[in-house]
Amino acid sequence: MQKNSLFNFYRQLFVICALAISPLIHAETSPQPLKALLVTGGCCHDYANQKVILKHGIEARANVVVDVIYVADANTHPALPICGHPDYAKGYDVIIHDECAADINDPAVIQGVLQPHQDGIPGVNLHCAMHCYRFGDFKKPVAVGATNAHWFEYLGLQSSGHGPQQPIAIAFTDTTHPITSGMTNWTTINEEHYNNVQVFDTAHALAHGTQVIKNKAGVQQTNDFVVAWVNTYKGKTRVFSTTIGHNNQTVADDRYLDLVTRGLLWACDKLGADGKPKPGYAK
Questions:
Q1: What's the pLDDT tens digit per position in 55-99?
Q2: Architecture of domain 33-160+230-267
Q3: Total-model pTM
Q4: CB-CB contact of 112 with 85 (8 Å)
């Protein structure tokens, strides 16, 4: 009888210890969510709704918490709180640039925006972010190292404008990259197709887009431009960008949100070679 009581005592003690240790083991094996900062606001887009679509879409797909900096300032020089504060990325794993700030052109301010990325914080850049922080003759290829090349060097691609909105046929040109692995081509609704003034040597194209339009002379032409790519900035910082994403319907498209989420995970080195989040980062 005493032996049975002793056995039961130790068995209960073992169960209690196991239950106490289990949460500690789980905490060690389950990484904290990635912290992303979405910077948005400015001219020409429905950022009030798109910030919600992006936040919910990314958080539903990966172990990421998206904080938002948004200014309801619909001009080309929005009063973004990050400007003049080069430490704005402190505490974040990745910055998502989705602002439209074509006329924020002070080199000192631009340097402050770039500082976290120069320090190694990954970046994700969506649509009009490609047309921000520019000055000088940005319609011609900028020279590497020139003062007005700094933002384009971070992106890995220089774009200066777009034509009329028409559907864009997106074709993944590198189907072996983790971001695009298993993805299928698709055609958007009417969208803005950003031109390519130049693609830098540090960039690697993932997808091209073709769009049939009529030029100013009324002649039909087909434009073929890179629409998604990755870049290695300053030899160390991972950067993912896509020029797609003008209209809400496109931003809310599952295929678009999959692409952006994968790009974010890749930028943070949390995406497996098979295109799936690394352990602990799936949702």
A1: 999 999 999 999 999 999 889 999 999 999 999 999 999 999 999
A2: 3-Layer(aba) Sandwich (3.40)
A3: 0.89
A4: yes
